[in-house]
Amino acid sequence: MMKIDKKWLPLLALVVALVGSGGFWWFANGSATTEQHELVKKQKYFKVKKIVLSLPSDRYLLIEFSLKMTEYQEDTSQLIEDFSPVIRNATILVMGRKPIEELIDSSYLKAHQDSIHGHIAQQFADNGIDIVIDDVLITKLVVQ
């Protein structure tokens, strides 16, 4: 059996303690990182405030919707806020081209959602915004 000089025992104990603490920290933070990543994959809805546009024949359209996302960054809310003019413009371009008959017929609701979704996604891509929208959910649609 090898004999260890007693003057090295405190140093050996310190090394063992540091390695043990480092291992504990590694495993504790590794599992926390996994949990944080899972939290970011939960569904989140970003509300787009009312948009009003004038239609032919002195009519108006009021629309509100939410952007549904399952993968997003911590700063996505701020990006959505910063690029709200792009979102609003895309919505006005899409909905302003629709015939009044389609706007007042509820059977076109899904088509409206898909049109808005596609146009916003295209505008984001054109402007270099790396946000993936899963769906657009119209929460209010009023034609007056």
UniProtKB/TrEMBL annotation:
GO biological process entries: bacterial-type flagellum-dependent cell motility; chemotaxis
UniProt GO cellular component terms: bacterial-type flagellum basal body; plasma membrane
TM stretches of this protein: none
InterPro entries from the UniProt entry: FliL
Bilayer topology annotation: Single-pass membrane protein
Keyword list, A-Z: Cell inner membrane, Cell membrane, Chemotaxis, Flagellar rotation, Membrane, Transmembrane, Transmembrane helix
Keyword Cell membrane: yes
Localization per record: Cell inner membrane; Cell membrane
Pfam families in the cross-refs: FliL
Main location per the UniProt record: membrane
Record family assignment: Belongs to the FliL family.
Function summary: Controls the rotational direction of flagella during chemotaxis.
Protein name: Flagellar protein FliL
Lineage, top ranks: Bacteria, Pseudomonadati, Pseudomonadota, Gammaproteobacteria, Alteromonadales
